User: What shape does this take?
Amino acid sequence: MGKRTGTLRMRRENLESAVAQTLIDALNAELTGLYPEDDSANHFRLEREEVAPGRGAFFVAYEDGAPVGCGAVRRIGLGVAEIKRMYVAPAMRGRGVGRALLMTLEDEARQLGATRLLLETGPKQPEAISLYERAGFVRISAFGEYEDHPLSVFMGKDL
Assistant: This one.
């Protein structure tokens, strides 16, 4: 694992901004490559209003001013929030960017009043699963819009 050499900063961004769309497009392309058998793997929705102030947030990780990752959190119920659209550029993986993003999203979830944080990922993403496990997430039963999705791994954590 390499170390970051620059300054890493998390910044709240508009979900419809050019930088957000570029990162989400890269995430979708990666998911399509990992799960070619599943047309919906990269189409789980995230709407602008779900990351509006008081409901959620979309963050971009910047290293030395360059966008290197993103992630969102949205409130989905009383005391429950969900992590969405976590992505770190391949060249930046293993450098703590994902962990820093996850910590930012956890803090935001707490500010939204969440005491439980959920997420959905896939079985072909062992590095992501490992990141979440190291952060205290455990596997849980299916939830939400993914319940009938065979290529999902469900995880949760009490905050």
Notes: The beta strands are 8-12, 56-63, 66-77, 80-88, 116-121, 138-139, 153-158. The domain at 8-158 is CATH 3.40.630.30 (Aminopeptidase). The longest helix spans residues 18-34.
